[in-house]
Design a protein that fits this description.
By secondary structure, this protein is an alpha+beta fold. The protein has a single domain, classed as Penicillin V Acylase, Chain A (4-Layer Sandwich), CATH 3.60.60.10. The protein is built from five helices and 13 strands. Helix 2 packs antiparallel against helix 3. The longest helix has 13 residues. The radius of gyration is 17 Å and the shape is globular. It starts with a strand and ends in a 7-residue tail after the last helix. The C terminus is likely disordered. InterPro entries: TANGO2. It comes from Microbacterium testaceum.
Length: 265
Amino acid sequence: MCTVVIHVPATPAQPVHLLAVRDEDRERPWRRLGPWWPERPGILGVRDDRAGGAWLAVDPDASRLAVLLNREDLSGRGDDEVVSRGAIPLDAVADGIPNHPATRGFNLVDVDADGAHLVEWDGLTARRSRLAPGIHMVAHHAVDDPGTPRIARWLEEFRSAGIADGSDWWMPWLGVVERSTLDPTSSVLRRDAHDEHVLESLLVCAATVGPAGVEVREAMPATPGAWDDGLVEGLRSGIRSSPVGAPGHPSTVGEAGRSGAPAAQ
């Protein structure tokens, strides 16, 4: 599932702003943003401990970020014919992904200092397209797809809210996220039964990617899938990746991200 809201600026001199919500089974162990892959030095990510991959990955040195969303697979392949999607964000911020990944379907939002792209893979065909300037939403179908209830209901609200100046640029969008919870059928924070599992919104990330580097903030809702005011302070104080050239860069994170303990409780 998952949801991404993204603002692509009119010129590459301005940063891309992105708000990403991770939906997953709360019983599946994972770790918050950190350098969990020693074989990939400098790479930070939100790690899935079961399969060892990432939901979101960042290469601060390259000013690059990638975040993964599930998508329906049309290939008819069996489980023994596919591999985990978790390597896709890690590969995307490194050497890139293959034209025909050996995974189930996905959407990948791939952002660097030059802009943002969407990679769509349905198990048969891969499509890569540049996201036009403006505010967009991505879930499990096409970008801005009105067939997705939360996109149909809230995309124009996100566009009207826009982004604020300064480090709390994400506050107008969080206001839309809060309002969306009044309608569970279109809420951005979710709790859905899917394939015999209950998927809940477990993490909210706010990121900027541009010529000055990458910054990622993260916050966990107190109750998975539900709004709480602590998300605001969580994003203000959450773990961050350092901008390019900043002291402490590139792959150190706060102690909360270094503990190694799964964040889902």
